[in-house]
């Protein structure tokens, strides 16, 4: 009887798990809809009073997402006012939804990858994760690696979908 051989381990495939680039900081949300008059209009005087009375310390060392979930026209200065009040406490302030922030954070984190470390390698970009990885992160990693790698696949080493293969000249 022949010994079992792990062909995946011997294949030379390099797996990249985008989940490792998920933001580590705690995320908090400030929804402007809670400060709209009759759920429709942001009134400056009332909003300024609410911002001044708000406990901004609850966002210490967190990423604060500032957005409005209501279908209302919000003046730009409202986001600026919240950012100004939160800045001394929050690790950072981002104007946008959780999905928009995750896309931004992943793209920023992927800037740190040196594609040359993967030159002429066979890459599998892991497909399953426990945390939400935006499709933009997969697209950006593919774009960044394609000029230098031998091949890119998506999925798990035992079951992949071919994405790119360098043409042999």
Concise description?
The protein has 169 residues and is of the alpha/beta class. The chain contains five helices and seven strands, in the order αββαβαβαβαββ. Helix content is 29%, strand content 21%.
What does this structure look like?
This protein is of the alpha/beta class. It has two domains: 7-22 and 114-165, no CATH class; 27-90, no CATH class. It has helices at residues 7-10, 44-53, 76-86, 98-110, 135-145, and strands at 13-16, 27-31, 63-67, 92-95, 122-126, 151-156, 159-165. The strands form two sheets. A four-stranded mixed sheet has the order 1-5-6-7. A three-stranded parallel sheet has the order 2-3-4, with helices on one face. It starts with 6 loop residues before the first helix and ends with a strand.
Could you name the key traits of this structure?
single chain; 169 residues; alpha/beta; 4-stranded mixed sheet; 29% helix; elongated
Class from helix and strand fractions? alpha/beta
- Counting DSSP H or I runs of 4 or more residues, the number of helices is 5
Strand order of the largest sheet: 1-5-6-7
Strand content: 15-25%
Q: Can you count the beta strands?
A: 7
